[in-house]
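User: Modeling request: complex.
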Amino acid sequence: MGTTETGIVSGRLSPLEYEKNFSDLHPPLDEHEALVASDRCYFCYDAPCMTACPTSIDIPLFIRQISTGNPIGSANTIFDQNILGGMCARVCPTETLCEQACVRNEAEHRPVEIGRLQRYATDIAMRENRQFYQRAEPTGKSIAVVGAGPAGLACAHRLAVKGHDVVIYDAREKAGGLNEYGIATYKAVDDFAQAEVDYVLAIGGIEIRNRMMLGRDFSLGDMLSKHDAVFLGLGLAGVNALRAEGETAEGVEDAVDFIAALRQSETKADIAIGRRVVVLGGGMTAVDAAVQAKLLGAEEVTICYRRGKESMNASEFEQDLAASKGVTIRHWLQPKRIIARDGNVAGIELDYTRIEDGRLTTTGETGVITADHVLKAIGQTFEADGLGIIALQSGRIVVDGEGRTSLDRVWAGGDCVLGGEDLTVSAVAMGRDAAESINHVLAAASQPAEAVA
Amino acid sequence: MADLRNNFVGIKSPNPFWLASAPPTDKAYNVERAFKAGWGGVVWKTLGEEGPPVVNVNGPRYGAIWGADRRLLGLNNIELITDRDLYTNLREMKQVKMNWPDRALIASIMVPCEENAWKAILPLVEETGADGIELNFGCPHGMSERGMGAAVGQVPEYIEMVVRWCKQYTRMPVITKLTPNIADIRKPARAAKSGGTDAVSLINTINSITSVNLDTFSPEPSIDGKGSHGGYCGPAVKPIALNMVAEIARDPETYGLPISGIGGITTWRDAAEFLVLGAGNVQVCTAAMTYGFKIVQEMITGLSNWMDTKGHRSLDDICGRAVPNVSDWQYLNLNYIAKARIDQDACIKCGRCHIACEDTSHQAITQYVDGKRHFEVMEDECVGCNLCVNVCPVQDCITMVGLEPGVLDERTGKTVDPNYANWTTHPNNPMARQAAE
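Assistant: Request completed. Predicted assembly structure:
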């Protein structure tokens, strides 16, 4: 039991409690568990799970390989489609993707544990550092990848496989993007994101330059002059503002910063948290922040979302997880004003909301929740500094089916493009497919000009 | 309540479930536990002749194959007959029979193929009060290399000879246990009958290597890097055993010869199948070795409840009921036409029926209908082979439906003929053509 001291303080828990609270959410399957779980797969033909996977991993095959004692072959099957299969196994909302499509749901309302099986196989291969890919003959082409998140890493790896040289430019201290800075700690323990970056880079031919920010340290034009092609996997660097009175009070924080700080902390004892925390928002970030606030020892944690449960972006599983950790989720509440005392947050006043004629509106009723810490998880925005005249729509980069932007020699993928799904696995798919497109274009350009008569 | 009391060649037991001669019946301790658990009878592990007993290997004796979740499907065994002193066994048998007079106690015997050897042991066994003897002509490993067990069971003349000796030197009922490691099971059964056997029991275990260690290249179970074929048993052998039981049950030469059914019996349902195919009772081993003696309670209640549901009052009501329905292929009705039908409410859309049919059979199941994943039988292609039924993971989702006479078979464009017609009279049969000419 932690302290109930009011205010934003660190060290609410004992070291043992921190360790327990931030350990693996789903412990890995051991061999026996993996065999039992894999035996449940029916090896469906044209399997619905595979169709549901944004990276189209051959799920029945990789599970069959596990069931026959061939986890290395299984990992190879996974990595063929998704080189970040290890992280995706941990963070994918499988309950709305592959596992939702599993035919076992029809049979007995319990899908095959695809995510955990994927982790089982990829963990073994990565632990043994089994590398499945070799670089093709060098092409002499150089590609700039901007952003070392899931999209950028997937793109870089596939380009390296094709024999191209890749330089990744990333604004942060470490590579990994949201895998390193944006995932709840208990989903990626033991510094997994960095282990995965190392595993991806082991193919060779990929150089990472950290602390290089587009718009500050270089422009898109610089990249195009130095490289044959550019892939933009920029992610979403900005966050939405609350635009409510009192937002500047001490104790109002962006959830993404809070989550990132947690990930970079060794012991978590140095991460300060309020006694009563309100998290604003309804997505995965809101849940990740709320759950971790609770795990840090906050006495009360409340998620306030301005619409109903059915509109929440956080999956059912995530909502249940939050509830199981003691987080209260309240719907139809929209922040009106941060109540500050001596410059510090003391509470939040909220408007009750409802849908009227299809539009969200306030009812006129208000309520107050006592809080000393408010975390904002109300959406991230794309910051387009340094991109010049690239076509945007709704604040995101416009791409075609192959990831080509409006600019010649420039591709993009991941959260920064229009139509992105805010999913690691979708970002991987886009990065991988853009790499195939880049390779295709570069290869075509290198062909001898004369046609065969 | 159905009456499960069993009278097998005059040997009475409260139910038809006996433990087969095998490791679980090697000594009084185990057999007492079995009777406490409810087993109707026990065939004591095979006795050898007087003198120093045989020895077993001191490494692993069993190998296995498994299904999902390591469910044991097949076991193999290189243990020999009892490795305990003959008189120790006889003393214990006598005591157990005294303690459990209502249970069947059978002595399994294997001595050299010499008249004196059998003449010597039979009175000793008789003195225990045992209800009968079972001649072990089946053990496929070790003992067969010494001219006993399957080495006898594979030569019908030897079977007949030994059975004759036994009938001559003992008043006890004689059950002859047959080896399946032979081309035609009817031959040894006929020989046993000619020798005067009271019954046959089958099957004994099947020559087998269950697996090979891919690190050491030794067959399993491995004894210091080498392996020997063992006797295969357990659920995997049941279909082989059922067929052999049926072969004997319907052979005119052995028709009516009592059969004790053995081979992979694990549940009441397995037991019932042996009984209706002509077995007068059943013997169980691997299931007990896998799960313990308690399984007999499931067998007793399961058989009893099924019989009650179906109105069968005693074992006589069910024994052999399926025998008349076992037929040679040539007499099967070629005018019977069935089509697979998929219950769309039960279908979970795994696609296994489609791919099995598409890749390996008759291309008779759809994958998409109107752009939607939908599995449906195309009756104009379906030959009624039943593969889809067998690969479907959902019970009763796909069923075979017989077409009524007069209905159009969309595959052939002909209506279903109401008359029975088989291969013997079919125009494509060269033999039938010759007969007609």
